[in-house]
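Project standup — Tuesday

K.O.: blocked on the structure for the chain from last sprint. Re-posting the sequence here as requested.
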Amino acid sequence: MKTVAAALFLFICATLTPESPRVLRAPVWIYLEPVPGSFSESAPQKNPPVEELRETARYILSGMAGGWNFSYVPSDRRRNVSEEFTLVPILPVQSDDPRFSMDSLTPEYPRLTCWAQFTVDDAVARRLNYWESIRFVPGKGRGTGERTRESAGIQDAYKNAVLNAVRTIARGLEKNKPKEITGEVLLREGPRLFADEGRFVAEVRVLVNIREVVPYTLY
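H.V.: unblocked you, prediction finished:
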């Protein structure tokens, strides 16, 4: 009888053990060296590779943890309007945040790679539940960035991939081209980055929430 009671006690304790915290993860890499022949006296000083990797990791995780607010101005040749697209992190991941880490840091020439990780806390969990509880528009996109821009080129590739996802969704919203579209977008897990013909190429899946479509005022 004591054996049965002990087993039951252990079973209850096991069922009451809190679940492991959710961790957002993304593969991140940068080149260890700049493009040959790209050195110049006027070029800004390049940060150490680990710092470049850290900045790239925080950029990607910020899009996965809280998402970005965006503003999209479609190009309009008739009105002489150039396309504009901005992303602002909603819950930016700070460099000194203890929830942020880079696991499996591996220098394998010509790249430095790692797994960027962010442990979800209550604030981020509420944000992710918000995305999961409402039916937002899923999308996907591919974007490029120049290899010569180093880690900034990687961020360009991700930004342009998100832009293309938003642009595709925007085309189905209005018959007439709007003046501006604003909203928010969440980068889903599993983003992909690779190099092709001197450019960075990012492929992403996103959830998009269109908040406002501003039409051109008719005069």
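K.O.: great, moving the ticket to review. The first helix runs from residue 2 to 16. The first strand starts at residue 23 and ends at 31.
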